[in-house]
Records
---
Amino acid sequence: MIGKSLEQVKLAISKVVKQIEAAGIVIKTTPKIEVQNIVASSDLGSKINLNSIAISLGLEKVEYEPEQFPGLVYRLDVPKVVVLLFGSGKLVCTGARKPEDVEIAVEKITQELRGAGLLP
C-alpha cells in the first residue's frame, strides 16, 4: 500500500513542479521525497471502555477528555507514535515513519489491553 501511495505522491509533486515551471520559476533540482508521517487506521474488533483504559494505561501516556474529544490519545515511546482509540474499538495511528511502526504499535496496544482484561 505504501508503494502505491508513494507513487501517487511522486505524481502529485511532478504536477506541482510543472505548474511552478509554467509560471516561469526555474527548479534546478529534483525534489527529494521523504516519508515523515504515516497515518493508518485499524479495528480491534470489539467495543472498548475508554475510561478503564485511561486508568489502566497510566496518566503519563494517556490524554482522555471525552467532553473535548471522543477518543483517547495514547502516546507510545517505542515506536514513537500517537494512537487515537475510540469506544467502537477503532483506532488511528499517526506519526509512524515506516509501516512496521504501525504494526508494532497496534500489536503492543492489543497486548496491553488484553493483559489488563480490557479486550477479549
---
Amino acid sequence: MQKYICTVCGYIYDPALGDPDNGVAPGTAFDDVPSDWVCPDCGAPKEDFDPID
C-alpha cells in the first residue's frame, strides 16, 4: 500500500501501521483514513499529505 508524507513536518503515514492511537487501524489505506484525521506529530490536515514515490 502507498505511504504518504506530511509536507509540514515529514511524518510518514504507513498504512501497514495505521495510527491506532488516533483511531486508524493497521491496514487502513490513506484514502480510507477519515477526512478529519490530522497528522499525529504536527496536527496538519490530511490535505497536507503527499504520496511517496
---
Amino acid sequence: MLDINLIREQPDLVRKALSDRQMDPAPVDGILQLDSRRRALLTDAESLKAERNAVSKEIGQMKEAASRQAKIESMRAVGDRISALDKELAEVEEQLKAAVSALPNLPDARTPLGKDESGNVVLRTVGQLPEYDFEPKIHWDLGPALGIIDFERGVKITGSRFYVLTGLGARLQRALIAWMLDLHIRQGYTEQYTPFMVKSATLFGAGQLPKFVDNLYHDAEEDLWMVPTAEVPLTGLHMDEILDEKKLPVMYTAYTPCFRREKMSAGRDVRGIKRGHQFDKVEMYIFCKPEESDDLLEKMRAHAEATCAGLGLTYRVTQLCTGDLGFGSTITYDIEVWSPGLQEWLEVSSVSNVTDFQARRAGIRYRPADGSKVRFVHTLNGSGLGMPRTLIAVLENYQQADGSVKVPEVLRPWMGGVEIIRSQE
C-alpha cells in the first residue's frame, strides 16, 4: 500500500507511475477528494469534542440548576453531531483505504518503460541452447511414454488442467523440492512450514486481496483461502509486529502447493503441465531495512540463478518493464529456462523488491537500534524455483534418444541413486 502522504504531496508522481503501468491515473483524484473530506471531518469532530470537554468542565462548576440543565441540553445536540461525524468519518476512511489499497506499487526508476511483456529486457543468457542428434520430445509426449505423467487420470479425478505424477515422476518432483530447500538453507534462509490456507487479512497484507479475488480459491464457510504462493503466509508470519533491527535481515524459504484459478490465462497453455490450477513452488522471502533491499534483491536473484545453474539448465535473466510489472513490485527479474521440446523460454522464477508496500498493508515494522521512530521494513520475494516448469525443463533437457531421461546429478541423492528414468512398461 502506498503512503497517503506520498499521494497527497506528490500526486503527479503517482499519476505518472500509473500511466507507466498502462493504468488509468484517474483514481488519484478520487483519493485526494476522499483524503480532503476525511481531514475536514476529522477537524470538525475534534473541534466539537474539544468544545464538549470544555463545556463539561464548565457544567461541573455551575451552581444554578436551570443554567446547568440548559448547557446539558445544548451539549446533547453537540454529542449527536459528533456521533454523526464519527460515523461519516469511519465510512470515508473505509472508502479511502479501499481506494488506496487498489493502487499498485510505484515502479523503480531502473524499471524499463513498456506497455506489456514485449517491453521486457533480456539482460543476459547463461549457457548454450542444447543440441540433439534426434528430435527432442515435448513433455506431454515424453512423460506418458515413460509412465510418469498421467493426464487422463488427472482429468478423471478433478478435471482439465490437472494431472497425476506417478512413480519416478512423483519422486523427481519431490527430489527437486527437497534439493531446492536444502540449497536455500545453505544460502542462509531458514525453512518454514506454513499453513496452506490463510485468512483474508493475510492475503490483504500480501497484496493479493482485493486485487486478485477472482483467481483465488475461497472456503466461504470458514473464510479461509488456499494460498496462491508461499509469499502470502511468509508475509503473514510477522504481520502486526515490530522487529528488532539487530535481527534483520530475516530470510525465509518455504515449500507450498499453490492454488490459482487461472481465469486471467483462460485458453492459454491448455496442453501439458505448464499452467495448472494447482502447482508446487519453493519460495525465498526476505524482511530487511530499506537501505539493504537493493543489495538483497541482487543477492536473491543470484540465489535463483544458482538453482538453475545447479540443475545444469540454460537460462536467461529478463527485467520486467512497467507494463508487465507485478502489482506489489517496484523492480522484478524473471529467470527463464530453455525448454527444447516446447522450443520456448519458461519462467521459473520472479525475483522482486516490494519495498514497504506489503509492510504497510500488513503492519510490519522494525525498531532502529538508535531508539528512533519505528519504520516499515522492506520485503523481497522470489521463486526458487516454481514447478511444474522446472520439472518440464529437466525432463526435456535431459531426455535421450531412446526416450529415457537422465536424472541431474544433484538430484540423485533424493532419487535413491536412480540415474536414468526409463519406461516402466
---
Amino acid sequence: MSPSPESLTARQADLPRKLARAAQLLRTRVDTEVEAQNGALLRQMGERVQLQLRLQQSVEGLSVAAIT
C-alpha cells in the first residue's frame, strides 16, 4: 500500500523543520566541544602562569641572595 498524496505532502512540508532541528543540535554539539577545549586551554594557561610565577620568585630570591 503506497502513502497517500496528503501524507507525502505533509512529510515534505515537515522536512525543513526536521533539518533545521538537526542542524541546531549539531551546532550545539560543536559549541559544547569548543567550550570544553577552551576550558582545557585556559586551565593549561593558568598552570603555566603559576609555574612562571614560581620560577620568577625563585630567580628573584637567588638574585637577592647573590647580592647580599
